[in-house]
Structures are given as C-alpha cells and as structure tokens.
Design a protein that fits this description.
With 425 residues, the protein is of the alpha/beta class. It folds into 2 domains: 61 residues, DNA polymerase, domain 1; 314 residues, Aldolase class I (TIM Barrel). It has 11 helices and 11 strands. The strands form 2 sheets. The protein has a 9-stranded mixed beta sheet with strand order 1-2-3-4-7-8-9-10-11, covered by helices on one side. Strands 5-6 form a two-stranded antiparallel sheet. The longest helix is centred in the last third of the chain and has 22 residues. It is elongated, with a radius of gyration of 22 Å.
Length: 425
C-alpha cells in the first residue's frame, strides 16, 4: 500500500453537515460563538442597535450563571424573553448514567441528538479537577490498544454537544455561581482535556468553536493553557490548532518505529513518525513554557524496552516536550497487557536522565471503565471473548485504513484519558 501524500486534503465527514432538528425543533443557543449568537438573535427579530448588548446579556446568563430558562433572564424585558422562548431553546446532553469510582472519578454516559451516546469523565485531584470530554460518537481511528477505537464512528459532535459536556458536569458538581452568594474562589473544573471519545482534529471546526465558548472570559472562562487537545497525528490540522484554538497540544505517540506504530496507531501509515515530528517542530506555539506532551501507553513486550526509550528521546530531540507514560488499562478482550511496574520505571528513568519530564500516569476510574483508552458507551463487547475482539481489532484496522484512503482520511487512535497523579515531576 502506498502512503498518501502528507499534504493531501482531509475529506469532510458528510455526517457532520448541519442538520434540521427532529420534528422541526427550535435552534439551540448552546455552543454558538459570540458572532453566531448575535447573528441568530438578529435573525429572530432583535434590532441591530441592540444586538451586541443582547448578545452579552444572553451569553452571561448561559455561561456565567448556567441558566436554562429564558424566563429567569431577569434583566431582559418580558417581551424579549418571550421572543427568545419562541425562537430558541437551551438544550444540553441528557445524563443516562453517572458512575462514581472508588477514587472519586465520575463517568457520565450522555445521550445526544439522534439517541447516540458518548462518555465524559471528571477526575478530581488535590488542587485541580480535570474534565475529559469527547469530540465524536465513536472513532474513525482503530488503535489496536484502545477500547474506544473498537467502536465505529457514528458522527462528529456539534459544538453544542461539546460545550454541553462541560455544562452538564458543572451542573452535577454544583459549580455554577449563585446570585447574591459570595464568589467562589475554588473551581471544581480547572482543566479540560479533549482526550475522550474520538479524534478532535477530524472535527476541527466544531472543536474550535466549542473551545472559543469555553475559553471566553465572561462565561465558562477557562484559560487556553488549561485546555489540552490530544491528537493521534492529523498532520494538516496541527498548525491550525495553534493559530485557531491556541490550547496546549498532546500527541498520542506510543511507538518509536513505524513498524510498531503502524500497528498501534494506524494513522501512522498515512503520516509517519518523521512527517509527524516535522510538523511538531514547526508548531507555532512551541516553547519551553508550552511544551508538547507525548502520550505513550506502556504495552508489555511491545514498546517498553530500554531501546524504545532511547529511540524515543532521540526522535524528539530539540522539541520542548514532556513524555506522559500511561500504564495500559485493560478492557474485556484486550489484545495487550500492561507493562510491569519495574519496566515502566526503568523506561521513565531513561527518559528522565535524557532531560525530559517523564510522569507516570496513575490509572484513575478503572473500576468503572473510565481510565485511559477505556471510554466506550457500548457495553455489549464486554461479553465477547478475547479472540473475537482481537479478530475485530485486526479487521477494523484494515477496514479503517482502506476507507480512509478512499475518503481522503486514514485511521488512527482515540485520544487518551486525562492525566492523573504522577510519581515523577
């Protein structure tokens, strides 16, 4: 198979084109950027002279106060509230189930338009709380080590569905401010990571618009340095991530040779290690203060040797980076095993002595299948045998690659779950 050109365009996913709401529902205001919100208000009858003011008022009610009822927007006239209620709705994903791990991790199974389901994970730690959000229903990228990657892509999430995950979590955590109450100095959600289900850079526009909403200082107000986007290596979109989103970047790397990465992260067959690293060296925001995180899952006997560790530090030489080592989190039928702890520590030591931070991620939420690579809303696979799943993984890789070539895209991994505690700073 001949690798496609690194500069080949990425074909749009036809399932992500704007669709009419079922039953002719009203447009949802959640997830609209400021410019689109203002345009929607004008189209609904807001006078142009009032549009900027109304946009600011509605924005604050939605994203600062978390209000879901137009009647509660009390600094708007009753007539204008009635206009909004007739023209629009405020709709969030529905919580189907909420599981709480023994370590405090929360996993939400959320239902979105069309009856589809995605998962979102909240990880509390001392001094911070990380929310891991999804960008797709399923994933195009058939990473052989990733449970999420065994679920076929259904569609991209809309900006509303991405922002909605943050808002639903804030509901559950009781994080919205209360009018008249003292301002909270602490936040339950301090960081957001696009490391849940799906490849964010195959849903670039919706992810970009959603992050504009999340980062806005008059609403959810999360700093761009508190947001990390993880990609398997969609090279043509990497520079756009810096210039149009501006958040921190993580890369699902996982191997030090093309032969191994082709198997673990099949998108490598389109954009190989050399091509990916060249794009990262040219990353517009690259600096010692904004390092790239290389995610590296530790698989016993596959990618965890001392030779792998030495190749890794040579490959990334000159790139301000940290190496985030992830003990493999097993799932029913997984074709791999977690590296022994001593092997992980030896690997980390080599990386650390080469001058790179090498934190080992503490698995979180394993008892509720909320750990890195375990996210998957479908549960029927838990009943299948290891042999059946291994066969499906192999078939999925080949099918994903062939489909990707035909569509102008190619398969690769779902992003890993958020960073937990570390044993090495």
């Amino acid at each position: 198979m001949t690798a496609a050109s690194p500069t080949a365009p990425i074909a749009p996913d036809l399932l992500t084109l704007p669709r009419k709401e079922a039953g002719g529902g009203r447009p949802n205001l959640v997830g609209l950027t400021r410019a689109r919100l203002r345009a929607a208000l004008v189209a609904a009858g807001t006078p142009e002279a009032q549009a900027k003011m109304r946009e600011g008022q509605v924005w604050q009610w939605l994203y600062h106060w978390g209000v879901r009822d137009f009647a509660s927007m009390t600094n708007l006239s009753k007539a204008y509230r009635a206009l909004l209620a007739e023209a629009f709705e405020i709709r969030l994903p529905e919580i189907v189930s909420r599981q709480v791990s023994a370590d405090g991790t929360r996993k939400y199974l959320l239902r979105i338009a069309g009856g589809h389901e995605v998962e979102t994970v909240y990880i509390p730690e001392e001094g911070r709380g990380t929310l891991c959000i999804s960008s797709q229903v399923g994933c195009t990228l058939t990473c052989s080590f990733c449970h999420t990657g065994t679920q076929k892509l259904v569609r991209n999430l809309t900006a509303a569905e991405i922002v909605g995950q943050v808002m639903v979590a804030r509901d559950d955590l009781g994080e919205w401010p209360v009018p008249g109450a003292p301002k909270r100095e602490d936040r339950a959600i301090t960081n957001v990571v696009l490391m849940g289900m799906g490849e964010p850079l195959y849903n670039f526009e919706n992810v970009r618009d959603a992050m504009q909403v999340v980062m806005d200082g008059e609403g959810l107000s999360l700093s761009r340095r508190r947001i990390t986007l993880s990609t398997s290596g969609v090279v043509p979109e990497i520079a756009r991530t810096a210039t149009e989103i501006g958040c921190l970047l993580a890369v699902s790397f996982h191997a030090t040779t093309d032969a191994v990465r082709d198997k673990l992260v099949p998108i490598n067959r389109r954009w190989n290690i050399a091509t990916l690293l060249a794009a990262l060296r040219d990353y517009p925001r690259l600096s010692n203060s904004e390092r790239i995180t290389f995610e590296y899952v530790m698989l016993k006997g596959v990618n965890d040797s001392d030779a792998d560790a030495r190749r890794l530090v040579k490959l990334i030489a000159g790139i301000p980076a940290k190496i985030n080592l992830i003990p493999f989190n097993e799932w029913p039928g997984a074709p791999y095993e977690r590296s022994d702890w001593a092997r992980i520590e030896a690997f980390a030591d080599i990386v650390h002595k080469a001058g790179y931070a090498s934190p080992i991620r503490t698995p979180r939420g394993e008892d509720i299948m909320a750990a890195c690579g375990q996210l998957k809303s479908a549960t029927e696979r838990a009943r299948k045998s290891r042999a059946e799943i291994a066969a499906e993984v192999e078939a999925g890789i080949e099918a994903g690659i062939e489909a990707g070539i035909e569509a102008g895209i190619e398969a690769g991994p779902a992003a890993p779950a958020p960073e937990g505690q570390t044993i090495r700073a």
